[in-house]
Amino acid sequence: FFLDIQQITRNRMWFFAKLNIFLTILVAVAVTCSFALRMHGEPYEGLRYRNTGPTEASSAASLTGRIVGGQEAIAASAPWQVSLQNIYGNHFCGGAIIHDRFVVTAASCVSGLQKSWIMVVTSTNNWMGEAWWYAVSAIHVHCNFDKPLYHNDIALLELATLIAYDEKTQNITIADEDELVEGEILTMTGWGSSVEGGAYPNALNQLSVNYLPYKKCRSAYGGSENVDMGHLCTTSPVGQGACHGDTGGPLVNAKGQLVGVGNWGIPCGRGFPDVFAKMSYHADWIRSTINGCQQT
């Protein structure tokens, strides 16, 4: 009887040890997945922040807060950058001016929103400061957005009025050809959180990153088909990268051309590639959408 008790005790200890290991792995997987920029079934960025206002934390955020590992951008160094805000004036995504009346962003930023819920804010490095804002007259989401998941995450916002250009407000040329080479330095800008779950910094920030071909990017994500030739990936050291609020923001090459807009990844600065919609891949769709919507 005593031996049976010892055996039962050992069996219970073995069971709980295995259970502890299993739960540890399960929690680790859940935590990793929960920090992905956009997971299946989650509300899109615009819908998630539709009814939120600027928080006290955002109001008090240091002007040196940044994209993870980045630095504050010089005034007017990215005059094409816009902040997409809800009707309460809260930033939720980035975008880039590409035409007198069109801004490109991620479809996951605006899908499901009504045009009256979006303000396009320009001409500023401080999204809570003085700036020009424009109403949206139409939202053009790619017809194959999320078909399959994470693919064709691109949209155009048609503005109700022409953009007034000045030294702080300019459009940017889209890169038509895929001429990037592995390791090439690109620049991303945005108002994303500097830490996971943190408030958005007031000041626009920038980060230099390196181009990674999509096949190597796919390998970094375990061969996932969520990455394909319509995506553009970048790498940066651990502790640097995109974070929440950077979605839809511009990625620019050394020629000053727009090569991508922020899509998804595993934030913030965890060492995984950041994934963008590739502009050269979507250039024909952008042109046909703009030309089809222009009044003659």
Automatic annotation (TrEMBL):
Transmembrane segments: 21-41
Cross-referenced Pfam families: Trypsin (PF00089)
Keyword Cell inner membrane: no
Single GO cellular component term: extracellular region
The keyword Cell inner membrane is assigned to this record: no
An example Gene Ontology molecular-function term: serine-type endopeptidase activity
Domain of life: Eukaryota
Biological process terms in GO annotation: protein processing
SMART domains: Tryp_SPc
InterPro entries listed in its UniProt record: Peptidase_S1, Peptidase_S1_PA, Peptidase_S1_PA_chymotrypsin, Peptidase_S1A, Trypsin_dom
The protein, known as: Chymotrypsin-2
Upper classification of the organism: Eukaryota, Metazoa, Ecdysozoa, Arthropoda, Hexapoda
Name of the encoding gene: CHYM2_2
